[in-house]
Amino acid sequence: MKHVMLTLTILIMMNSCVYSQKLTIDVQPCKRINIKAFEENAIKEGAHKFYRYNTKDGLKIVQIKMDKYYDETIEQEGTPLKKRRFYDIATGIISECDLFYSCPVGTIKQYDESGKLAKEADAEEDMKFKVTDVIKMVKKEFDIDLTKPRHYMHMSRGDDYIVRFGSDTPLPLRSEVESIMPDGTTGEIYFHAKDGKAAINSRNIEYPIVLTL
Prior knowledge:
By secondary structure, the chain is an alpha+beta fold. The protein has two domains: 35-122; 131-210, no CATH class. Helix content is 20%, strand content 38%. The chain has four helices and 13 strands. The strands form two sheets. An eight-stranded antiparallel β-sheet has the order 1-2-3-4-5-6-7-8, with helices on one face. A hairpin with a 3-residue loop joins strand 9 and strand 10 (161-165). The protein starts with a helix and ends with a helix.
C-alpha cells in the first residue's frame, strides 16, 4: 500500500511540475555591456550592429546597438525563457525583464548608473489571467505543454493572449497549426482556429491575421 501511495505521489508531482516550474532564467546580475568585446565581434546588419554568442552553460546571447541604447536578449536554449535588458547609453540606466515566449513575466527591474536596483514592478500586475494560468489551461484543454517548444509554437500578449502550437512533427503544415485567443481577464477562449478554419470565433476575429507564422 505504501508503495502504491508513493507511486501516486510521484506521478502527481510529475504531472504538476509543468505548472509550478520557474518561468525566469537564473543568470549573472546586470552589468555593463562590454563595449570592447561588442565592437570587436559585432556584425553590421542593416542599420544596426549585432553581436551573437553562446555561453558554456547553454545560454544564447544577442546584443544589438541601437541609436540610444544597447538591446540584449539572453535565451535559454531548448526553452521559451528569455531575459531582455536595455542599456541606456547616455544615462547608464539598465532595464530588465523576463519573457515566456513574448510575454513579460516575473519582476521588471531598473538599475541606476551605479548598478544599484532602483525600481521594481510586477510584469503581470494588470493581468487577471496569468501566464501560468494559460499554461495550465492549454495543457488541460489541448494536452500541449507550452514549456516545451515545438515548431511554430508561440505566445504573445496585449490585453489578451495569442497562443499558437503545431503538431509535434519536424515541420508541421500551416493547416496543422492551431491558434487560440484566451481573454486576459477570464481566460475564456473566444477564438480557436484548427485545420485552417475558425472553430470558435465569438468576437468576429479576422483569423488569417492570427494564423500568420
